[in-house]
Amino acid sequence: MCWTHVDLLTRPGGVVVSVHVAPVTSSTIVVAVDVGKTSALLSVTDAGHHRLFGPSEFAMNRTGLAAVLARVATSVPLSGQVKVGVEAAGHYHRPVLDHRWPDGWEVLELNPAHVAEQRRVQGRRRIKTDVIDLEAITELVLAGHGSPVTDRDVVIGEISAWAVHRSRRVATRTATKNQLLGQLDRAFPGLTLALPDVLATKIGRLVAAEFADPTRLAGLGVNRLIRFAATRDLQLRRPVAERLVAAARDALPTRDAVIARRILAADLALLADLDDQIQSAETALGSLLPRSPYATLTSVPGWAVVRVSNYAAALGDPKRWPGPRQIYRASGLSPMQYESAHKRRDGGISREGSVALRRALIDLGIGLWLNEPAAKTYAHGLKDRGKHSGVVACALAHRANRIAYALVRDHATYEAARWA
After folding, report:
1. d(Cα 246, Cα 241) in Å, to the nearest integer?
2. I need a surface site. Which of 19, 110, 239, 322 has the fewest CB within 10 A?
């Protein structure tokens, strides 16, 4: 017997499964779990707020969880409708969510911000203990909160892992480039005047790797520099070569140039390794995405593998979301609103939600802005009305959110006429 209610809605192009939380009744039993890195705390409470078991601490392993569940089973009435509430805790709570719970038990994932807000409602804003967190989790579950945990496709987890891995490597590469440019300014002052973006061009990387010592480049000369680049399958135009040699001859030597060149060589090796890892991640995403529910999103102008994969990683299982409004609200892009005594004041975006989802939606909106004719017209209209770029970006993210949800829901490809 399963207490999760599932609606099958017939849509053009396929069937959509929308998962809803079973309603709370007088027979509801809440199993609250507060997860830590090596241990967790669990309690069992009925709908009348009577504690049936715990709080009990157990080790975060198979033996510890099985032992505590065996004790919990003796405390749960046979007619009880069991809801397991687990507060999200980075990745520490994933083993508990993925555990095979007894048949008929509904597992819910709770937003930690909601748990913190519930503590504030209970008058314990500045008091945080594991037992108090269990009480807050219990109250939230009894109030009908929590996202049901479904059996998502393995491919979605793989896409999420590769997308997060790529994002971390991109951030590391950006930091490495900044450090590398600092060392390059010490080793070869003035190079960025001849090549404004040294690391974005093959010629720039060649100079950084082979001619970090400006005296060596100055002694080589223009013609020999062009031939040197040609032996490495690079075409170097004479005006660029002349600028580089001139910058080398006019460079001011620094006292730290020698050590800067040594660190520069190490940074260049690290940068090449990061480029390889990012490319490998993108290749893996390219092979996984066609097997996922998000495969059709690459048919949208401006939405390639990386953009769609970041969105898929941030959203997770699309069956968890009843509609685009909930996704947009979860991203924190919804505007703040304050109303009192018939006076209403709207503010900027709330930023209460997933940062990864917020960035993914904005990135999808930028992809539309740059490539889709209807989005370009929409953006220009907002600009003409005096809206600043932040408002335009949020508006296009809202449009992208509706398009993405509809295409995943209907298993359909993008049609310009439908979204004109």
Report:
1. 8
2. 239
Apex 239 CA angle, 234 and 245, nearest 5: 85
The DSSP output letter for 323 is: -
Residue-wise pLDDT tens digits, 250-283: 888 788 899 999 999 999 999 999 999 999 999 9
Contact 71, 102 (CB under 8 A): no
Give the length of the chain.
Answer: 420
Secondary structure of residue 185 in the 3-state scheme: helix
The upper half-sphere exposure of residue 366, i.e. CA atoms within 13 Å in the direction of its Cβ, equals: 11
Which tokens is 153 given? 């496709």
- pLDDT exceeds cutoff 90 at 417: no
Report the alpha-carbon distance of residue 404 to residue 226 in Å, rounded.
49
Q: Give the integer Cα–Cα distance in Å for 164 and 172.
A: 12
Contacts of 162 (CB under 8 A, 6+ apart): 281, 284, 285, 288, 309
Residue 271 backbone phi and psi in degrees, to 5: -65, -40
Q: Give burial (CB, 10 Å; 0-12/13-18/19+) of 404.
A: buried
